[in-house]
């Protein structure tokens, strides 16, 4: 069973330390590097916890090479491998599936933590989520979720299937009532690619007893290439991103439940699905300046949420059209606003303009959309980095950002001051010595007490628990 620990205590080599310092300096000066531009007052975005203290100018310091070749961390931090693809599931239901993706941590009794983890398996995956009676939607689907339960000391007590028979479970998000919404980034219909049921739905997963939630698609929330969700904790509105990588690109949605904040199972009661229209902005990539702000955002009813004949992004939204964006990914709620990520945009692929990552804020009270963060190219490689993907708030204030691009892959931190620092680097080479390749990070999340960061390596599928001086 893969549950090992290591410590980042060895001194960094000069080249590693120099690289980390160079990257931080470039980020702060706005030169080429992990340059990030910020707009306005981001106090709610970078709130963190009440006990949080702002970090210094270099974050937690340079990354220390891991002698085991798994995960580089700053000095003083340690990781534990909680789970690895191909290992036996502790429930005895089969083996740990591949392609670890979105994830969230939920508080349990007596200090326990429940980690619900997505598996973005397509129908070609060799390590499928095992089918379990009462938890399987479509036996032909190889995706789904698994749940790890940890004791108060972080040791794995159990690991089991939470939902199976779904397809390409990419991200999702937690609900205010303590469940996980897992999203299918797939819109194949029954009879396509061997599937026996339509796909492209959201499913609710109970982290404690998945049989309470079962494998029921929340069809009213739309059938499209879902990525992530965030729930307005006061209004109960669910915001949804669509990661459609071919033009026409995805939309940003909101779901108005018939029974808002009704608790587990309430989303099955149905509701109304709408798409965002920003007047005069058909493509969000055309907006390049941080601080750009658009009032009077409109929400338009989706003609056919089940996309029976036509994908939603291709449906007729009237003479004014609708607003699209390439690679809409992470989505989360902070303060009084919802934030969502466009991972990158490429004009060569049909976007109105190029960028290396944007974070947008939508304030529902003001019906206002603001471009608050713009990411720059990654100098650790020779190609532009496809910077942000999964994002979460950090207990020290600021953000943790999973990088998803070419070359070396990192978890980056962004401080309240807008400084960028490397928090972790994947050392697992899935390529060859001549042409190395590293799997992306995904599913970054923190334990309820803020003392542990959990993060997945997509391939080889690995779940890490990282501890250290988070509030130093």
UniProtKB/TrEMBL annotation:
Residues of the region (Disordered) are 1-21
User: From which lineage does this chain's organism come?
Assistant: Bacteria, Bacillati, Actinomycetota, Actinomycetes, Kitasatosporales
UniProt-listed Pfam families: PhoX
Name the SUPFAM superfamilies on file: Calcium-dependent phosphotriesterase, Thermostable phytase (3-phytase)
Q: What is this protein called?
A: PhoX family protein
**What InterPro entries does the record tag this protein with?**
PhoX (IPR008557), TAT_signal (IPR006311)
UniProt biased composition (Low complexity): 1-19
Q: Which PANTHER family match?
A: MEMBRANE PROTEIN, SLR8030 PROTEIN
